[in-house]
Amino acid sequence: MGDELRLAHLCKTYANGVRALDGVSLRIPPGMFGLLGPNGAGKSTLMRTIATLQDPDEGTITLGDLDVLKSKEAVRRVLGYLPQDFGLYPSVDALTLLDHFAALKGVGTPRERKGIVQDLLQRVNLWEVRKKKLGSYSGGMRQRFGIAQALLGAPRLIIVDEPTAGLDPQERNRFLNLLAEIGEQVVVILSTHIVEDVADLCTRMAILAGGRVLLEGEPASALEALAGKTWKKVIERADLPHASAEYDLISNRMFGGRTLIHVFSEVRPGPEFDPAEASLEDVYFTTLARRTREGVA
Amino acid sequence: MSQFGVVLRFELAFRRNSIPLWIFAGLCFLVAFLSITIDQGMTPFGGRGAIAINAPVVVTEMMLVYCVLLGFPIVTGFVATAVIRDQELGMQSLFMATPLRKIPYLAGRFSGSFLATSLAVAMLAAGTAFGSLMPWLDHERLVPFSLAPYGYALGVLVVPNLFFLGSVTFAVATLTGRQIYAYVALLGLLVVYSVSSAFIDDLDHDFIAAVIDPFAMRTYGFAIRYWTTAEMNSVAAPWTPELAINRLLWVGVSVAALLITAVRAPWALSSRERRTKIDPPGTSESTTPVASPLPSSTALTGLRHAREAFLAQTRFEIRGLLRSIPFVVIALFCIGNVLAASFGFIEQLGTETLPVTHLMVDVIAGATALFVLIVLVFYAGELVHQERKHRVDELFDALPVPSWIPLATKLIAMLLGIFVLFLASATTVMIFQVAKGYTAIEGGLYLRDILLVQMPQWFMLAVAALAAQVVINHKFLGYGAMALLFAMQSALPALDFEHNIYNYAGLPIVTYSDMNGYGPYSAPRAAFSVYWLLAAFVLVLLAEVFWVRGKDTPFRRRLTEVRRRMQRGRGVAMTVLVVAWLGAGGWILYNTLVLNTYRPSDELEDRQALYENEYKRYEGLPQPRIVAVDLDAALYPYDRKLEVRGTLRAVNETGQALRELHVCGSDPDVKIAALDIPGATLRHDGGDVPYRIYDLAEPLLPAQALEIEFDFRKSFSGFPNEVTDTSIVANGTFIHSGVWLPHFGYDRNAELTEPNKRRDRGLPKRERMAKIDDTSAHGNTMLAQDSDWIEFDATVSTAADQIAIAPGYLTREWREGERRFFRYEMDRPMLNFWAILSARYEVSRDTWVPRDGGDPVAVEIFFHPAHAFNVEKMKTATKASLDRFTRVFSPYQHRQVRIIEFPKYASFAQSFPNTIPYSENLGFIANPNLDDDEIDYVVYVTAHEVAHQWWAHQAIGANVQGATLLSESLAQYSALCVMEDMYGEDALPRFLRHELNRYLGRRSAEDIEEKTLLLVENQQYIHYNKGSLVFYALKEYIGEEPLNEALRTFLSEVAFQEPPFTVSTDLYVHLQKATPARLQYLLEDMFEKITLYDNRALSAKARHRDDGKFELSLEVQVKKAYADGKGVETETPVAGEWIEVGAYVDERPIYLELHRFDGNATVELVLDEAPTKAGIDPRNLLIDRGPDDNRKAVELVD
């Protein structure tokens, strides 16, 4: 069993006054951990902070016995990191660059390295195109290369930031499978704003917004909390303002030209409402909506 | 509003908000303002001589140079990117989706950017103009403010240059879609510019150089090349055909580039955005990844990991740099430039030099510098920001790799790139050497120079560039910081801050001599190299702790990180390095300030002023004259030590009793170990200014003699800031009488001469020389104020493997222990003007026997064994000279002529009695291609120096105006005759053409006043260049024999005369006698006036007559002007002047006669052959500012 990652009271305020992290504390055991949050929630800041790329103003991070903020070098040795937004040298081929990363990461003796690189490229299904220049790769291929480099050296801590954005469904599947496979023994933090990713993969999750952790736990227990408390109804678009004033609205989306609303309520809000099976999406929206209300109040 | 108008307005508004553009505009203003106002106009633009601080030429040249220097970055930064920035930001598709058409879009973008940058660069004019109005400028050195030069510089030079630079880079960038190619295009332009430099010194092709220079710098230089001070201060807007052609040509190229862009630029998404992404096989079906645990592997740790990572990253960086397009292009251009420089370097002033390795090393250093600079500045920016540019920084930064690895590997890649440039250059010049048939290639010298002289310096700058990029963390500001560093490097010395200790990467100059290797230059160079390399390592460490890692980059944050990194061992390393650096600095200061004296230029000048203020009152004080010198000079070349003991006899020739003796020296570093003057007591010692006053116990009565024993010493310990004293070196010692003998009385030659510097120090205006009729000055020659003819003997001892030489004849040679002794005795009185040389010489001996069978004369060449190339020719030229001069002038007074090679620390030859020291890079390595009519300057220089045995060592003028006419001009004439003897008359026109070019060119650099030849005040362009022209013309006009007769008679009257000495007017009387009445006007024009012709062949038509002959009708302009000392010309009517008219078939003259002219005329001639060219004064006997238009191709008419 791998080590647990603990974040305690992380705070970060940028020079422009944005408070990106506002007392974030989390315990992340080995396994897939989903970090959900809207754009600008502070996810990337948190990920980069764990990935040793920036320092918080306050707080501590430990990975097992390791103090992440003080022993960056040691953390980097066991870290696999796939940033949200990255590029690759366009004029270098995949084999060369991955081998290069392996050498920099100190993975294997030069002799072993060849095998490791081959194995990883096969895993991410890039072996056939290993000699092609990275500049010619599609978004999905680049992303797969990214995961390959993140997996170099059997990392104990894997951080993947918005990995499925921009992937087609097939690519996304393959990518998630790959993650799932390795995500059992080590800490994998998957940051995303796509609820499905978390629902499909993660054993634990947290929802982050405005730099705060709004919810932390297992997706199943979060769903449980909502069980029997979500209701749905199809209304006309024009009635939406009325509905949102009247009900504890979780979400609304277009459905066959009309609007489907989900509402939170301990009891059925009205006869025209049908019970809805709670999804993680409902959990997410409920959590966010609650925060907004509290913020207003 | 039209589409164009909309785009233009948008572009201007966009640029108006661009802070970098405003910074650039401010920079332009500031640079121009400072250049005009600091130190009364910084050289090389203003502040020289009588040229005003704000003279039109100064203003124009300065704006031109800055516009090109600043134009490169500003244009690539702003104009070239006007369209591709949309592509790069991915915005082009947004524009293309609007009804906007292509042409208005392109035109609007270009015009807007070009206008904005032009306005920024125009700040140069504002800065200059504003600066020239500053109250602290010396008003006597300003000309009245006028807008004309600014308008001219902007309209004719600056704006067209920017237009050209802008349109070419814009076209290239837009058409290729890559900014990098705009840089490549700029490099190409630099090469065109650099190639044009190979032509400018070639008088047959200087027109080409003037036309093809894309920046018109040489074109402008060509237009003003013969301008005098008066013209430079007044003429605002020169307009020559070359300028017109040049501007038309390059504006034409610009317009063509824009048109091509308009036609060819794609109006669809760029190929980069359209590039199809590959779809790898197997992605279409959903293959399940291999489900297995990740393979385990050895995790490298510690040193092993660091090594692997370091090697991998090094390989990666090196491959990236060496394969990048800009580097390949830079390398190719560099090779091209080195090749062009090789040709240019060995073909100077119409003569080829052997491509010896030490010259080729200089070629490499000079021709690669720019490219190395580009590589280090450009790639420092590229490499430091490379990861971020490709957005792989987060991947890299999260790797377990210490920060020193990216830094070190990038530095290594840059250094290797630079080294590759040097290797490529060295290979190029070696191939060049072989192709020229020169095979004595010194590979070791190339390697040593590149590794020990070149690379350390570039290492320091590469580190600075890298550190600037890392610390500042902004690419263009990083470039700006480097620009500031370079500016500071050259500004500090210009402001008299000359010590290398505070000038980053400031290294003492090294001069490599074949004779003496790096000699005394190696120690200071090595010391400063160590010092600055340590500083560079401090910067490396600094860059390492400042290395940006991660995303959190506000400077305050980085400082926190820096503090943290400094705690980890780096603090210790930094402390150690800084201590070592400061230690090296201390050691350097001890060497340069304590063991040696550091004297910046202004301090030397202050001392000259002090000398004048303190002692000028003693000028002309009666003093005894030196009549005999007996030396015992002990040279220790390998220890760089010298002890000159001697006895001199001085006689009171004044007719009054002398009570005090004023002894002065010229070199404060000479230690006076002993100076025994019988019965004298020291009353005053000037200390740092070597001036001592002794009281004589018994007055020295008239005709009474005084024996003075002296012991002068010099030795070197440690090393200086810059090597200035190369008089005594391991191989090639060369010392002379000016320093190594006590002299009597105030010497006005030691005064500060530069008028502006005198004025700054409150010194009165100074006469450059005594007036010709100042008889008080007739008692001395130019060579000494305390002696003329002396008895001379010398014992010289030196190292066992060297030969030491002094004037006189070797009477005895012996050894004592490890020392070799030579005794030289002169058998007749000689001028007190001697030199002692010592080196490991090879000697070539020959004898010249006079035709009439007199005593033979020994001809001996003492040369560096590797420099045997021209020894035979020197002997031949010496014998030819002896032959002619003894026949035409008078017998030779010595039994021997010795030519002695000395290291290239100076590049002259000088004539001492029977002894001619001759620089190693002057003649010894010349390789004139005589088939190609090149000037054989080996013969010329040799003959000139041998001629001084007559014109100086037989007849010497008084130290007044005109003195150098008697020595130098006559030596020039004598040498011309020897060249004619050896190579025939055809050898001379090319030489004279160069003399004319140099005379006209150098008179424009006159600081004070151009004098006439008769009253020349030791002005080289007059006594050498004009002297050659005048005497050659005189010989052609009045005939060689009458001229020689006049010289012979003059010589017989004045040879070996005692004071008072002769003056130039004495010679002039003889010349007047030899000149027929109808040509007296010419003699007057030549010697008593500054005469400039503007003769031209206006048209030349020939008609074939029925009798088979040809009738030539030649229409000519005859125009003459007199110039005053400032160069103001007054046209003067031509009346009864005799000027040659010639007709040629190709270069063969078929008619050449003097015709009488009273102004413009049409000359009718009947010729036997059909002429192809005809002209007035076709041989350029007269000084003509436009010598090329004297001949014209003949048009054959029916």
Overview of this structure, please?
The complex is a heterodimer of chains A (297) and B (1198). With 297 residues, chain A is of the alpha/beta class. Chain A folds into 2 domains: 5-223, Rossmann fold; 224-296, no CATH class. Helix content of chain A is 36%, strand content 28%. In chain A, the strands form 3 sheets. In chain A, strands 6-7-8-3-9-10 form a 6-stranded mixed sheet, sandwiched between helices. In chain A, helix 3 crosses helix 4. The longest helix of chain A has 17 residues, at 280-296. The mean pLDDT of chain A is 85. Chain B has 1198 residues and is an alpha+beta fold. Chain B has 5 domains: 3-271, no CATH class; 307-576, no CATH class; 841-950, Orthogonal Bundle (Neutral Protease, domain 2), CATH 1.10.390.10; 956-1088, Neutral Protease Domain 2 (Neutral Protease, domain 2, Orthogonal Bundle), CATH 1.10.390; 1090-1198, Immunoglobulin-like. Helices cover 47% and strands 17% of the residues of chain B. Chain B contains 34 helices and 32 strands. In chain B, strands 3, 4, 6, 9, 12, 14, 15 and 16 form an 8-stranded mixed sheet that branches. In chain B, strands 7-8-5-11 form a 4-stranded antiparallel sheet, with no helix packed on it. In chain B, a hairpin with an 8-residue loop joins strand 18 (842-848) and strand 19 (857-863). In chain B, helix 10 crosses helix 11 and helix 23 (522-546) packs antiparallel against helix 24 (555-595). In chain B, 46% of the residues are buried. Residues 270-275 and 281-290 of chain B have low confidence and may be disordered. Classes of the chains: A alpha/beta (297), B alpha+beta (1198). At the A-B interface, helix 2, helix 3, helix 4, helix 5 and helix 6 of A face helix 15, helix 19 and helix 24 of B.
Structural topology:
The complex is a heterodimer of chains A (297) and B (1198).
Chain A: E1 5-13, E2 19-28, E3 31-36, H1 43-50, E4 58-63, E5 66-67, H2 72-77, E6 79-82, H3 94-105, H4 110-123, H5 139-151, E7 157-161, H6 169-182, E8 187-192, H7 195-201, E9 204-209, E10 212-217, H8 219-226, E11 230-235, H9 240-246, E12 248-255, E13 258-264, E14 274-275, H10 280-296
Parallel strand pairs in A: 3-8, 3-9, 6-7, 7-8
Antiparallel strand pairs in A: 1-2, 1-4, 4-5, 9-10, 11-13, 11-14, 12-13
Chain B: H1 3-16, H2 19-37, H3 56-79, H4 81-88, H5 92-96, H6 102-121, H7 123-132, H8 148-176, H9 179-200, H10 206-212, H11 217-223, H12 229-234, H13 241-264, H14 271-274, H15 302-323, H16 325-346, E1 347-348, E2 351-352, H17 357-384, H18 386-389, H19 393-397, H20 404-435, H21 443-472, H22 475-494, H23 522-546, H24 555-595, H25 601-615, E3 625-636, E4 641-651, E5 658-664, E6 671-676, E7 680-685, E8 691-700, E9 705-715, E10 733-736, E11 743-744, H26 755-760, E12 787-799, E13 803-805, E14 809-816, E15 819-825, E16 830-831, E17 835-839, E18 842-848, E19 857-863, H27 871-888, E20 896-902, E21 915-919, H28 937-948, H29 963-983, H30 988-1003, H31 1020-1038, H32 1040-1054, H33 1064-1074, H34 1080-1087, E22 1090-1093, E23 1096-1104, E24 1110-1117, E25 1120-1123, E26 1129-1132, E27 1137-1145, E28 1148-1157, E29 1161-1167, E30 1173-1176, E31 1191-1193, E32 1195-1197
Parallel strand pairs in B: 3-12, 19-20, 20-21, 23-32
Antiparallel strand pairs in B: 1-2, 3-4, 4-9, 5-8, 5-11, 6-9, 7-8, 10-17, 12-15, 12-16, 13-17, 14-15, 18-19, 22-25, 23-24, 24-29, 25-26, 27-28, 27-30, 30-31
Helix pairs in contact in B: 1-6, 2-3, 2-6, 2-7, 3-6, 3-8, 6-8, 8-9, 8-13, 9-10, 9-16, 10-11, 10-13, 15-20, 16-17, 16-20, 17-20, 17-21, 17-22, 20-21, 21-22, 21-23, 23-24, 27-28, 27-29, 28-29, 29-31, 30-31, 31-32, 32-33
